Amino acid sequence: MNKNNLRMKKLFTLCVGLLSVLPFWAQSFEFQYEGQSLNDDETIVIVAEEDLFGDLSCETNSMLDPSNGLVLKLLRNATATAAATLQITHNSLTAESLQWCMGGECTPLGNQASLTKRFTVAGSETVQFDATNISGEGYLLATLKVTIGLETRQVNIVFVNGDYDGISALSQKESGKEAVYDLHGRKMQGKPSSGIYIIADGKRVRKVAVK
Amino acid sequence: MLKQYTYYILAFACLLLAGCDRIAEDERLIYEPIVMEDDQDDIPEEGKPEQTKRVVLLEDFTGQRCTNCPKATDVIEQLQEVCGSALVAVGIHGGPLAFAGNARTVGLKIDIGDEYYTHWNLEYQPVGLVNRHAPLSYSEWIDAVKEELAKPAPLRLKGTAVLEGNVIAISIDAQGTNGTVDGKLQVWLLEDGIKALQLMPDNKPADQEYIHNHVLRTAVNGTWGEDFSIKEGETVQRTMALDLEPKWNREQLSIVAFVYNDQGVQQAAKTKVEIIE
Fold it and tell me: Could you identify which of A127, B31, B176, B210 might form a hypothetical disulfide with B198, taking C-beta atoms 3.0 to 4.6 angstroms apart as the criterion?
């Protein structure tokens, strides 16, 4: 009887131990783009369009429907403290300004290649990153890395105006493979139906019409 | 069994009581309206000058492309409700998130807005200067305004502005009330009620009919004002004129005058532009 009790006690302690460390393994947040969950390190491609101000701009979140763009969403807790770093790795996009709004403040990037913010997330946080008043062809590559607790996830953002050769850094992980995006930057799986798409093959990005 | 329950109840009661900590008086949040007498209206001509209360200048660096800037405007509205005429707020559209306008959309950015943004080494928006001290995020404005209001003012300021035809005639009267002040006198023109596009926070869609108030339109006497000096008991009058621009709504114009130096803004005043038909 005593032996059984001891075994049960050990089993109980083991279960409690496992349950207590489980939260550290479970994913605590994710990035979503237009309502779809993104994998860690996924790339979204955004093509320049005329914005509400009448300027040619790339924006992660539409001015008329900001909640339907790039969003950081907590999966387990109601609130959490986040540290976010936006790193520009290439910028040949001739934009008048770049701004990044998270955590209640909008920060122009100016000539800085990297910015870090710390803020509290309540449920979800819109990742607003815009390149505004683009005057020429070019592209911008940025990585947004967010750390909450012990977990770090990142999303790669590509702003494009025009068709480009030589974007080797677009997604080095996809080099040699061809990635197809729709005009909203959503990655397409399988053969796309008719329409206009962006094709990135790791070396160049081009817009194609599928008939 | 009964004894066990008694222990549980006692423990629960202890927990409840522990939650009722006494909060020190200086840590309590009390919404206390600040009552200001509008004592700058009349400048006494003779005798020892009466002390006057300080009017605080809040420069809000804002932009139509700044998503979180309407949150700062909300703070200004709260402050104006409490402080009344003791607070003069100015919306300065400058920096990279301000919009200059194009054929399709009205823009409120002005060149001097950019100049001020650069001069004060501002790095994010919304950001504000309370009496021209260190840049502050909008969440810090209430405490900073409260602190400035508590300081004595070394001079009294009063402005009048009259629009006749297409010219605004401005007169600024000052009286030294405490010591000597050396610095600059700056006069600005503001406009209220401008309907223009504004990006909005909290996932709200952009507002194409957002009402922009206290928007800085121009500096009347240069970007950094003019030299100004006043001694205790002395009265000084400055007059200036400004041509009306067609894009300004004459019904919604105000003049802001303030005296500043290396110690910040010493006194401010705001007056509506009176129209003479």
Answer: B210
pTM attached to this predicted model? 0.77
Alpha-carbon distance A39 to A154, whole Å? 9
Q: What helix, strand, coil percent values describe chain B, rounded to 5?
A: 20, 40, 40
Q: Count the alpha carbons within 13 Å of B125 in the hemisphere toward its beta carbon.
A: 31
Of A29-38, A156-165, B161-170, the least confident: A156-165
Main-chain dihedrals φ then ψ at residue A102, nearest 5 degrees: -155, 150
Q: How far apart are CA B253 and CA B273, in angstroms?
A: 6
Q: Does A55 touch chain B (CB under 8 A)?
A: yes
Which residues on chain A are in Cβ contact (under 8 Å) with B123? 107-108
Structure tokens of A164?
A: 């480009």
Amino acid at the residue B18: A
* B70, containing H or E segment: helix B69-83
Collect all residues of chain A within an 8 Å Cβ-Cβ radius of residue B71: 104
According to DSSP, the residues that pair with A43 across neighbouring strands are A156
CB atoms within 10 A of CB A180: 19
Which H or E run includes B271?
strand B264-272
- Contact B206/A97, CB-based, under 8 Å? no
Beta bridge partners of B162: B169, B274
Contact A159, A133 (CB under 8 A): no
Give residues with Cβ within 8 angstroms of A61, minimum separation 6: A67, A68, A69, A70, A126, A127, A128
Q: Break chain A into its structural domains and give their ranges.
A: 2-210
Kindly state the tokens that stand for B203: 């996932």
Task: Write down the domain spans for chain B.
Answer: 49-276
Q: What region, left, alpha or beta, does residue B264 occupy, with left being phi > 0 and alpha being psi -120 to 50 degrees? A: left
Contacts of A52 in chain B (CB under 8 A): 105, 197, 206, 208
The predicted pLDDT at position A18 comes to 62
Strand B264-272 to strand B194-198: parallel, antiparallel, or no bridges (unpaired)? unpaired
Name which of B65, B95, B200 is nearest A132 (Cβ-Cβ): B65
Residue carrying structure tokens 């409690």: A16
The topology under which CATH files domain B49-276 is Immunoglobulin-like (2.60.40)
Closest CA to B230 of B269, B187, B175: B175
Per-residue pLDDT of B180-194, as tens digits, reads 999 999 999 999 999
- B124/A107 Cβ within 8 A: yes
Whether omega for the bond prior to residue B152 falls within 30 degrees of 0, making it cis, is: no
- Candidate from A161-165, B125-129, B196-200, B232-236 with smallest mean pLDDT: A161-165
Query: Which residue in A has a C-alpha nearest to residue B125's C-alpha?
Result: A106
3-state SS assignment for residue B91 = strand
Q: Which residues of A touch B197 (CB under 8 A)?
A: 52-53
